[in-house]
Amino acid sequence: MVSTEVTLSELKACLHAEYIGCNSSIIGGEIVIGDNAVIGAHALVLKDVEEGCRYITKVVAEIKRPKID
Predict the structure, then answer these.
(1) According to the model, what pLDDT value does residue 17 have?
(2) What is the DSSP track for 3-69?
(3) pLDDT at position 69 over 80
(4) Per its UniProt record, what InterPro entries does this chain match (predicted)?
C-alpha cells in the first residue's frame, strides 16, 4: 500500500493506492487516486482515478523483423 503526500508546485495531493508503476506521472492539483487503484508503468494521470480502477497507458509499438534472404 502506497500512502504519501506529494507536492506539485504550490499544490499538494494525498495518494493512497495499491500500486503506482515506475515512471508514471501524476500531474495536476488535487488529483485523487481511489483505494485499491492501480497506476500502470509510464501512465500519465491528469484526472482523478476512481476506487478499484486500473489506469494504464496504451503504448503502440511496431516491431519489425529483419528480412532474411
Answers:
(1) 52
(2) EEEEEETTEEEEEEESEE-TT-EE-SSS--B-TT-EE-TT-EE-S-B-TT-EE---------PPPP-
(3) no
(4) Trimer_LpxA-like_sf (IPR011004)
pTM over 0.70: no
Q: What are phi and psi of 44, to 5 degrees?
A: -115, 110
- What is the distance between the alpha carbons of residues 6 and 53, in angstroms, rounded to a whole number? 21
Helix (H, G, I), strand (E, B) or coil at 2: strand
Q: Which residues pair with 19 in a beta bridge?
A: 38
Q: What are phi and psi of 52, to 5 degrees?
A: 75, 0
3-state secondary structure at position 1:
coil
